Every structure is written in C-alpha cells, then in structure tokens.
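Note to self: the last two entries modelled the partners one at a time, which told us nothing about the interface. This time every component goes in together.
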Amino acid sequence: MILAIETSCDETSVAVLNGKQILSNVLYSQVKHHQQYGGVVPELASRLHAEFIDQILDDALEKAAIQLTDIKYIAVTVGPGLEGALLVGITAANMLAQSLKVPIIPVNHLHGHIYSAMDSGEIVTPSLICLASGGHTMIVEMTHPLEFNIVANTMDDACGECFDKVARMLDLGYPGGPKIEALAKSGKASVDLPHPVKKNPKAFSFSGLKTAAKLAIEKKVSAPENIAASLQACIGSILVEKLKLAIDQSTYQQLILCGGVFANQSIRQAILNEVAIENVLIPNVKLCTDNAAMIGLAALHYLKHGYSFSNYSQCYPSFGLRLPEKP
Ligand code: KG4
Ligand code: ZN
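The predicted structure of the combined assembly is written out below.
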C-alpha cells in the first residue's frame, strides 16, 4: 500500500495505491486561482498547497477506505517543479513517514509521467517515450527499466507552454491546451504554421511557432477557431515527425505517450495514425495531466526493479531536468 503526494506545480494531489490498483487519486486543481494571471504564480501555488493538502489527504484516505496505519510506503514528487510548491508535499511526506515509521520514496516527476502508462498496460523495453507537458517536451528511449537516453529535447518552450501562450493571445484562459482543443473542434487547420528545426532529430523548438501564431492572430489571417485547429494540427505533426526520425534510428517494442498534452484526442490520433509501432501505451486522460497516482506508480516501479527504501530518511527537493534521477 503506497500513499503518494504530488505538489510540483498547480495541482495538490494525494493517491492511495494497493500495488498497481489505484484506490483513490484525489486532486485539487488551483486553476481558478491562477487563471486571472494567465499562468501559474509560484508563491500563490505554494500557499494553496499548504492550505489544501490536509483536506486532500483526508479525502484520499476516505475514498480508498483505509487507515493511515495501512500505509507501507510514502511516495512524493521531489522535482523538477516549483521549489516552494514541492516543499509543501515533501514536508507533508517527511512528517507522515516519520510518524508512521515507514520508508519514503522520492520520485522524479518525469518518471511519474512515464510510469503513469503502467495503468494502461505492461511496459516493455526497449521503448520509445514521448513526454509532452507544460514544462517538458522530450523524446526518450527506455533501454531497460529505469535506464533512459534523451533522444530529443526542446531548445526553448515546451509544447504545452505553446498551447498555453497561444490560448492566452486568443483570450481563452488557462490552461490553454483543453481550451484550444475545444475551440479547434469548430475550426479548420487552414493556416500555414512553421515546423521549426524540422530535420533535426535531437531538437524541438516551439518559440517560433508561438510567434507565427501571434502574427496570425494580430493580422487576423483567419478566425480564432481556424488558428486553434491549425496550431493543434501543427503540434501533432511536429511530434509525429520527430517520432518518425527516432524510429528510423532504432527499433522499439513499444511507444509510450505521456504528459498533459496527450490529454488531447486529436494529437493522440495523429500519432496513432502515422507512427509505425503497434504496441502503444497512452494513460487515460486523468492520468495524463499532473496527479499523485502516477507518482505512486513510479514508486512501485522503483520497488519492482530493485531499489530498496527500507530505512526512513528525510527527502529534499531535487531538480535535475535530465532523466533519469535514480533515487
Ligand atoms: O503534465 P501537466 O499536467 O503538467 C506539467 O508537468 O507541465 O501538463 C500541463 C500542460 C499544460 O500546458 C496544458 O495546456 C497541457 O498540458 N494540456 C493540453 C491538454 N490538456 C492539458 N494540451 C493540449 N490539449 C489538451 N487537451
Ligand atoms: Zn507534469
């Protein structure tokens, strides 16, 4: 039985897992508090985590119908993320682990996104992973469980960030991905947008795309729904292109799509239609965006692959952007 805590950005989340089975995955989204600022305000995020974590913890235990004393491990996100926000979850985890006398499992947030796929099926290696969220856009190969090589990374913005910024230019609110997806349903992908660093297998770049979308909006080249549909289609085809370049270089048993951007049905479909790997794992929409169950699944994966966390010790924030950060 693992109790997992995630507070790296703007979702306060606690989950309880019995092995792979998710007994509860409770989440308080701070979106409405940050919306007026057009993005996450770090200081506000920390304060809101501190305000809500107790309640979310109680709800997660109640929903899972277990007592705190049933918990055998505490898993917590230690980074990457907003430092103040991470510290709220980490402090709660340290206190819980100390009072329950159970080990604490520090989890890398990116591992959380990757192993969220365990909920959809068995992970096999070598696999190719596309992780696209508000903070990251990477293609990573997993050669063995917990051994990774970064194949491609963004040189500037993350692709979720591109969705968020363009949505802001269109006055759609935050987070932008779901708003663009909804608006795109009534539009046509008729606006020509650039594919920066198209031939480079190692790099993504989204800042030029963001600027091109900005110009299209300012010049009113088309209706907002067409710009939204064009941006979504362009990002889908950029991800497809890079995945194809990676697949040309090596053979993979499986493709894993994870991170908030893969909540987008049109982007999922573009990849499923065009990428020639049959075994594809995509977490369900609720596990794509930040949540604590994915942190519990990553912790379970660490345990299954020989990491031992038998002794209680405090944990602290840890900020590598590179994968992996072994505990
Ligand atoms: O994984 P996540 O919840 O948090 C990070 O680790 O960053 O990802 C959040 C990002 C935001 O940029 C959000 O706009 C994007 O994922 N996102 C989407 C959709 N839902 C969330 N992007 C495109 N379409 C969506 N439906
Ligand atoms: Zn995330």
